[in-house]
Amino acid sequence: MKRTFAVLLGCCIAGLAAAQDPSPVDESQLIGVLQSGTSSVREKAAACASLKRVVTARSVPALTALLTDNDLSHSARYVLESLPGSEAEKGLLNALPQTSGSNQVGIVNSLAKRRDPTAVGALSKLLGNSDSAVAVAAAEGLGHIGGPKSLKSLEHALPSGTGVLHEAEVDSLLSCANRLLANGDNSAALKIFRQLYDHEKSDGIALASYRGIILASGSRGIPLMMKAIASGDSPTQGAALELALKMPGPDVTTQLAGLLANAPVPVQISLLQCLGQRGDPSVSAPVAQLVASSDPAVREAAITALGDLGDQSVAVVLAKCAANSTGAERTAARQSLDDLRHGPVTQALMAALSDDSPKVRLEIIRALGDRGDASVAPTILQLARADDDAISSASFQALGTLGGAEQVPDLLQIVVQTTSDDRRSGAAGALGSISQRLESQGAQWDVQSLINAVKTGPVQTRLALLPICSGLTDASVRDALRASMADPSPDVREAAIDALCDTHDSELLPDMLKVACSDPEKRFRTVAIGGCVRLAVREEAVKLPAEKKIEIFKTILDTPLDTAQKRLVLSGLEAVPNDQSLALVTPMLDDKSVRSEAAQAVIHIAGSISKTQSEEAGAALKKVLAMSLNSATRKSAEKAYQRFQ
After folding, report:
1. What is the maximum span of the chain, computed from C-alpha positions, in angstroms?
2. pLDDT (tens digit, 9 = 90+) per residue, 309-326?
3. Buried b (16+ CB within 10 A) or exposed e, 313-329
4. What is the pLDDT of residues 529-553, one digit of tens each?
5. pTM to 2 decimals?
6. If you count DSSP H runs as helices and E runs as strands, how many of each does the chain have, helices first?
7. What are the angstrom distances between the C-alpha of 465 and each of 236, 451, 502, 628?
8. To 5 degrees, how large is the angle CA 416–CA 420–CA 425?
9. DSSP tag of 311
10. DSSP state of 259
11. Which residue, of 190, 330, 548, 624, has the greatest Cβ tally within 10 A?
């Protein structure tokens, strides 16, 4: 029994293997196709493609014979150029003198791709070929292969080459030199780079060769780089500036910084960008000196570089730049103030808060807020109580970012006690930002003090604090909002309804729906309808079943609505694509005030619901197609209608 099972299993495995490879490639058969006098060009090309998978040295004679065929040379080279071994190389080399034109160029390219040094002699002879395309391909091939023999041939041919051939020879010499450089043979590479730099006229070659000279010169390349940067010679200067970022070592950084003072404006800007990217804070002093440059582009580049290089010593410099500049320069100064990370920057900024210039103090407060160091919040809170309205306003903005639960009581006190509308608004704004952050973090804080102020504070206090309630999810907040909506003060009631309609708390959805359906004020109904739509279908944190969403929209539709309110409901129904929403939207096609919006909603819903509801969807879409529509809407409706046919 076991033997029978083993035999059956073996047969299954063999059958599976045969199924996976039903037509194994046979090299002999393919060679026969290539050598056949009756096979077509197409059949031989297909045989070459198949040979690529199984080719051995046996196929070389048959493939080589095709190299002189204008129709099949490419197919044969495709196989030969990747076949390891000397046979393929010999086949390509033997065919080379028997071809011309594009076939010869193709064989040269295949030999170059193989990078076999044995091809160098044959390619060198072609450098003087009367066909410029062949000569150029040979020059490029020698550069690709590289090595001493290729180098010698290219150097020998260079003086007599002209036009595109000369350019190809130069490019190949650069390739050879860069390969020598990569292999650590700096002296040989340096010789080539110097030869090209001394004799070639092109700025591009001058740049590439001088770059090579610097790299191949080792430690002696650094003075060359510095000299080129200082010289003003465009190609060499460009090469040196390109390398300045890559040359390692603090000495290089110091020398680059030493060039700043006397360099022309464009070079100063390039050096500042380079030094900023090198990130060595030891050169921040000479960089900081250029903040006072007469050229605005240099000032901006210096300010930007200080963000990466500077420490506490430049913090006040940057604050003064931000205070006394405009536009891009001010933006750069503020960004660099935020980016400073070397040394005790916060302490330096705090010490400078006594600066006589209010503009500078404003920038320091802004920077402290943006830098996000919560340890300075108590000091910023003191500044928020200052008599200067601008300082107070900036401090409240910073506290919105920096403040925590510890600052809530003081901010509440300011809201309750101040007689200034601006300060009350600023303190309430900071409270709102802090409370939302604490809420998102799940942190413990004194929510009840806020609620007590909302319930019992003066009217102006309640008006300032009620918007904060929309960002909180708490039972006492719900009670405070409900109580405020029943307040005898119209202003308090309005603020409470606005806060209710901005809430993220799904527990307040019934209260919002009640306002949407029955409030005597049209504005409140519209705001509440918008709030219901947002909370039902747009708030990711609120997860309501589709049936509940439909129930909300149906309840609203059962009340008198104006055009704007109907459009809000349609936007909500469109986001609940099912047969129930379709049933609510379809009758609205008869309402001239929202016919266009209803048509769009029908198309969207029908395009998303199951085909099992084809009868209802088809009927609704047919009704849409009977309407007068613009071309885009009609096209969408026709496409949706086709799903149900």
Report:
1. 106
2. 999 999 999 999 999 999
3. bbbbbbbbbbbebeeeb
4. 999 999 999 988 888 999 999 999 9
5. 0.72
6. 39, 0
7. 66, 9, 14, 50
8. 70
9. B
10. T
11. 624
